[in-house]
């Protein structure tokens, strides 16, 4: 089964992407992604949440908001789609994510599409 | 007629490959309905379970075909491939342990673990389960449907976890069985609830038969000790009798012997845990049938160990109760004070505090009794607490 792992990070963790903590931050993600390489089918790291926009259409009017949804403490920092036998395998990979301790990992089964 | 005990076995078999409990339930339900139509006319088949499983499997495949290429087709086809392997039906592999682990999977909300087990393994409908949990049938129905849709959609494996995973995965299974057992505990006079104790004991027996883990054995021992006292918890006039004052001749000696044996088997593994310790505490109480007294010092030690591995509100209050009985009211009150912020509506906290204050002649005991009485929903317990309160009122 395919699952999307959504990596949610806190503002403090995002701050580690640059500065003195950057090598440790990126090193942890690189070794995690290397280890997971054989099951990853796609995915990407994302730029910081301040670069994101949130768009809504209401009453035929477009509202674009600067940044992610404001009420969440944890923001999407990246995602992968993995192909594993079952939810336990997906949860085991999620548990190893560098952001699991301070942030969170969303585990979403991908909807299979009939071609 | 096929006993209800075989329901879970049939369902587990149907659902284990497809991971679709709802589909398996629907098809098994159809099979049971057809059986009620056919068997009275054509006679009960030699192998009723085999008959049911064949009909149910045909249903599963038929549904998959009707839906064409749907998300459900793939598991149904896996079932088809398995069909040949599983002949004859009498040789059906027992996948109930896998089903128990799926029902209590950490990805399923923990408050629905026990309802899911009662439905999937024992075949109770949402109405009966809702009554046991004192919630509206629609609400329970929705929770069960949601859980089953999560089981189907999210790829929860129908598998027994590997040994390294067991310490994390087994406790939710045990907790759910104990929660089902607890349903009948609060209101002894409610016969509808009383039935759940037997059902939960049966689940525990099934679990220990399929997986003789020391904690599973400990849980079953604990439940049997509790169950052994069901006739002694009220006197002839229906009044509440606390454990220390129970007439041991009213205890079910056969249940106690079985509990002792289970606990001894569990201890053999040398891996103590929460349920073994709780059972050991009950074993100490059960010894009173021989010695005529309760080894309160041993209780103190066991409660201390239990609290060190499971520092829950309930365990803390139980330990405080033992200290109170040992005449160590000051220590008892200190222990209670440590969890005061969580005590709120927890009746035992107020009852033990009342007892401890009362033993010190503290007039504040009366207010604590009042609170404990107000929080009890059992009339017999209320009466008993009122009688305990009155000496401090003079």
Topology (elements, then pairings):
The complex is a heterodimer of chains A (about 120) and B (about 400).
Chain A: E1 2-9, H1 11-15, H2 22-36, E2 40-45, E3 53-58, E4 61-66, E5 75-83, H3 87-96, E6 104-109
Antiparallel strand pairs in A: 1-5, 1-6, 2-5, 3-4
Chain B: H1 7-18, H2 21-42, H3 48-66, H4 73-85, H5 96-103, H6 113-120, H7 126-133, H8 137-154, H9 166-182, H10 191-210, H11 214-228, H12 253-268, H13 274-286, H14 288-291, H15 296-309, H16 313-325, H17 329-338, H18 340-343, H19 347-359, H20 365-375, H21 379-393
Polypeptide structure, described:
The complex is a heterodimer of chains A (115) and B (394). Chain A is of the alpha+beta class and 115 residues long. Chain A has helices at 11-15, 22-36, 87-96; strands spanning 2-9, 40-45, 53-58, 61-66, 75-83, 104-109. Chain A has a domain at 2-43 and 73-109: 2-Layer Sandwich (Alpha-Beta Plaits), CATH 3.30.70.1060. In chain A, 26% of the residues lie in helices and 36% in strands. In chain A, the strands form two sheets. Chain A has a four-stranded antiparallel β-sheet. In chain A, strands 3-4 form a two-stranded antiparallel ribbon. In chain A, a hairpin with a 2-residue loop joins strand 3 and strand 4 (61-66). The longest helix of chain A has 15 residues, at 22-36. The radius of gyration of chain A is 16 Å and the shape is flat. Chain B is mainly alpha-helical and 394 residues long. Among the domains of chain B are: 1-94, no CATH class; 95-154 and 167-189, no CATH class; 311-394, Serine Threonine Protein Phosphatase 5, Tetratricopeptide repeat (Alpha Horseshoe), CATH 1.25.40. Chain B is 69% helix and 0% strand. In chain B, helix 9 (166-182) runs parallel beside helix 11 (214-228), helix 12 (253-268) crosses helix 13 (274-286) and helix 15 runs antiparallel to helix 16. Chain B is elongated and about 75 Å long. The termini of chain B are far apart. Chains A and B meet through helix 3 of A and loops of B.
């Amino acid at each position: 089964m395919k699952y999307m792992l959504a990596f949610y990070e806190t503002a403090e963790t995002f701050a580690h992407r640059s500065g003195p903590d950057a090598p440790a931050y990126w090193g942890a993600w690189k070794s995690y992604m290397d280890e997971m390489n054989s099951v990853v089918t796609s995915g990407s790291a994302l730029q910081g949440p301040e670069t994101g926009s949130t768009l809504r259409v209401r009453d035929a009017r477009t509202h674009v908001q600067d940044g992610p949804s404001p009420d969440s403490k944890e923001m999407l920092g990246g995602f992968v789609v993995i192909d594993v036998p079952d939810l336990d395998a997906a949860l085991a990979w999620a548990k190893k994510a560098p952001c699991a301790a301070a942030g969170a990992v969303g585990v979403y089964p991908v909807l299979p599409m009939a071609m | 007629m096929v006993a209800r005990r075989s329901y879970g076995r049939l369902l587990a078999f149907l659902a284990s490959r497809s991971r679709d409990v709802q589909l398996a339930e629907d098809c098994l339900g159809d099979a049971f309905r057809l059986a009620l139509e056919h068997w009275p006319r054509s006679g009960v088949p030699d192998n009723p379970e085999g008959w049911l499983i064949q009909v149910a499997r045909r249903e599963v495949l038929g549904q998959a075909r009707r839906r064409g290429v749907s998300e459900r087709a793939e598991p149904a086809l896996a079932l088809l491939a398995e069909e040949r392997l599983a002949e004859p039906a009498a040789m059906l592999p027992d996948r109930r342990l896998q089903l128990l682990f799926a029902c209590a999977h950490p990805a399923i909300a923990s408050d629905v673990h026990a309802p899911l087990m009662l439905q999937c393994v024992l075949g109770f409908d949402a109405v009966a389960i809702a009554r046991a949990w004192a919630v509206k049938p629609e609400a329970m129905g929705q929770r069960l449907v949601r859980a089953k849709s999560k089981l189907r959609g999210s790829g929860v494996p129908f598998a027994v976890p590997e040994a390294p995973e067991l310490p994390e995965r087994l406790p939710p299974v045990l907790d759910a069985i104990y929660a089902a057992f607890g349903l009948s505990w609060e209101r002894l006079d409610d016969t509808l609830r009383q039935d759940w104790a037997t059902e939960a004991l049966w689940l525990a027996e099934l679990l220990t038969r399929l997986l003789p883990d020391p904690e599973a054995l400990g849980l079953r021992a604990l439940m049997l000790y509790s169950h052994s006292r069901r006739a002694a918890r009220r006197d002839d006039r229906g009044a509440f009798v606390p454990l220390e004052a129970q007439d041991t001749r009213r205890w079910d000696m056969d249940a106690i012997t079985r509990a002792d044996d289970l606990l001894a088997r569990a201890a053999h593994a040398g891996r103590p845990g929460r349920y073994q310790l709780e059972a050991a505490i009950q074993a100490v109480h059960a010894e009173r049938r021989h010695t005529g007294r309760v080894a309160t010092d041993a209780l103190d030690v066991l409660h201390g160990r239990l609290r060190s591995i499971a520092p829950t509100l309930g365990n803390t209050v139980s330990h405080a109760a033992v200290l109170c009985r040992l005449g160590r009211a000051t220590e008892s009150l200190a222990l209670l004070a440590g969890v005061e912020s969580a005590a709120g509506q927890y009746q035992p906290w107020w009852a033990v505090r009342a007892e401890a204050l009362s033993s010190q002649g503290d007039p504040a005991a009366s207010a604590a009794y009042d609170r404990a009485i107000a929080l009890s929903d059992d009339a017999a317990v209320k009466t008993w607490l009122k009688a305990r309160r009155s000496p401090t009122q003079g």
